[in-house]
Amino acid sequence: MNELIQAFSLVLTPGSELSQIVLLTLRMSVFSTVISTAIGVPLGVCIGLYRFPGKRLVMRILNTLMGLPPVLAGLIVFFILSRSGPLGTLKLLYSLTAMVIAQVVLITPIVCGLSATAISGVAPLVHETAHGMGLSRRRELLCLLYECRSQLFSILFVAFGRSIGEVGAVMLVGGNVQYKTRVMTTAIMLETNMGHFEYAVALGIVLLVVSFVVNSVALTLQERTGTTKVQGAWSTSRGGKLGGKA
């Protein structure tokens, strides 16, 4: 109980090392999520929407990369950014940028694969409806994205949750340097090994709170989207019945 009280006091203390760790973790997670989404969603839409030779092979590769071990992703980025690597002259190793790059390598296949699956399930119905209404290709694509908005929001939050809870890849390329690359997950491991349990508990509380907020927002968006679809279908159904009676 004493450690839990100390943990809460550390969480609520502004300007402390814990606050710096939390802010750095959020920056890393937001940047990596935005970049991964910007890359993965368009690729996933193209893969799920169009038919092309080798599509089945591409999906198998995506499914394989979705299960890529974080340590392996971190090792690949480490070799690329090391002094003897192709990008060693940029001196990005053990920095926030290196951690974001590792997260992008790890998360982008997940975003791309989930987006392709979501789009491929809805695309035939949207195409049939758009063709019947005489919509242009651009408007058909906008309608498709609108119909899949709930799934795309969920994918976004999945990417954020995957990013904020990552430890292996971040530890390899970031080095867990104090006041520079130490994030919540790596700090929890360090402080637990050092016996500073109140600090580890404080970081764990922050992780749980952030995960709860993200999941709550995701569920709220899904519920609102589902309610809108049900209301739209009900209105269409009533309109059809009234029109039939007339």
Radius of gyration: 22 Å
Tell me how many strands there are. 0
Integer average pLDDT? 82
Work out the helix count. Answer: 10
Structural class: mainly alpha
**Main sheet, how many strands, which sense, barrel?**
none
* Beta-strand proportion: under 5%
Q: Can you tell me the overall shape?
A: globular
What is the helix/strand order? HHHHHHHHHH
Distance linking N and C termini: 71 Å
Weakly predicted, low-confidence segments? 228-246
Helicity, as a percent range? over 70%
Produce the secondary structure layout.
Layout: H1 2-11, H2 17-49, H3 55-66, H4 70-81, H5 96-133, H6 137-147, H7 149-164, H8 168-174, H9 184-194, H10 197-245
Helix pairs in contact: 1-10, 2-5, 2-7, 3-5, 4-5, 4-8, 5-6, 5-7, 5-8, 7-10, 9-10
Question: Could you please describe the fold and organization of this structure?
Answer:
- The chain is mainly alpha-helical and 246 residues long.
- It is 81% helix and 0% strand.
- It has helices spanning 2-11, 17-49, 55-66, 70-81, 96-133, 137-147, 149-164, 168-174, 184-194, 197-245.
- The radius of gyration is 22 Å and the shape is globular.
Short description:
This protein is an all-alpha fold. 81% of the residues lie in helices and 0% in strands.
